[in-house]
């Protein structure tokens, strides 16, 4: 982290696919986040894997949920995600973001780690990670919620 602390930009490059996906690259990304540095993932094949690589959350096993069902079955899926031991990837529309986070928090512990990635590879890109209770508070206090969102939810046994 000395290079980053000194203001240098560094890159994590892999000759075996997308760095940070199913390899120990997530440890380097997590360390960068923990030390207050911005992480920017160069796009992979889709927003889900780009967000996962930038999240610093475990990527050795994950499930892609996409958009959850609008009504029937939605709460059941949220409970399954909350009870899962592996990382989950969910797409959420901006007008449903805070409501989704609150519903997820109802079934998880308040210190569950998540990452909210929005507008990946665009001018207003933002990758924010932390405990669900803290991120809910932050997003509730924003005047507007815009963009395309990918939520990465750590497995229930993950801790830092």
Q: Brief overview, please?
A:
With 160 residues, the protein is of the alpha+beta class. It is built from 6 helices and 5 strands, in the order H-H-H-E-H-E-H-E-E-H-E.
Report on this model:
With 160 residues, the protein is α+β, with helices and mostly antiparallel strands. It has a single domain (2-153), classed as Methyltransferase, Cobalt-precorrin-4 Transmethylase, Domain 2 (2-Layer Sandwich), CATH 3.30.950. The protein has helices at 2-5, 25-34, 47-55, 74-83, 97-107, 132-140, and strands at residues 62-67, 87-92, 113-118, 126-131, 149-153. The protein has a five-stranded mixed β-sheet with strand order 1-2-5-3-4. Strand 3 (113-118) and strand 4 (126-131) form a beta hairpin. The longest helix is centred in the middle third of the chain and has 11 residues, at 97-107.
Structural Rg: 15 Å
CATH topology value: Methyltransferase, Cobalt-precorrin-4 Transmethylase, Domain 2
Order of the strands making up the biggest sheet: 1-2-5-3-4
Give unreliable regions as ranges.
none
Oligomer class: single chain
User: What average pLDDT do the residues reach?
Assistant: 90
Shape, please?
A: globular
Number of domains: 1
Which structural class should the secondary elements be placed in?
alpha+beta
CATH 4th-level superfamily: Tetrapyrrole methylase, C-terminal domain
Please work out how many helical segments DSSP would assign: 6
> Helical residue percent?
25-40%
Strand content: 15-25%
Query: Do you know the CATH architecture?
Result: 2-Layer Sandwich
């Amino acid at each position: 982290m000395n290079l980053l602390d000194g203001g240098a930009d560094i890159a994590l490059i892999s000759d075996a696919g997308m760095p940070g996906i199913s390899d120990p690259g997530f440890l380097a990304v997590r360390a960068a986040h923990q030390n207050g540095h911005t992480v920017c993932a160069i796009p992979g094949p889709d927003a889900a894997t780009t967000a996962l690589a930038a999240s610093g959350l475990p990527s050795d096993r994950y499930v892609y949920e996409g958009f959850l069902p609008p009504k029937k079955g939605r709460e059941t899926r949220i409970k399954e995600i909350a009870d899962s031991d592996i990382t989950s990837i969910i797409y959420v529309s901006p007008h449903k973001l805070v409501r989704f986070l609150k519903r997820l928090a109802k079934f998880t512990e308040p210190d569950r780690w998540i990452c909210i990635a929005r507008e990946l590879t665009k001018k207003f890109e933002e990758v924010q990670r932390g405990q669900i209770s803290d991120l809910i508070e932050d997003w509730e206090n924003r005047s507007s919620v815009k963009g395309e969102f990918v939520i990465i939810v750590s497995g229930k046994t993950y801790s830092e």
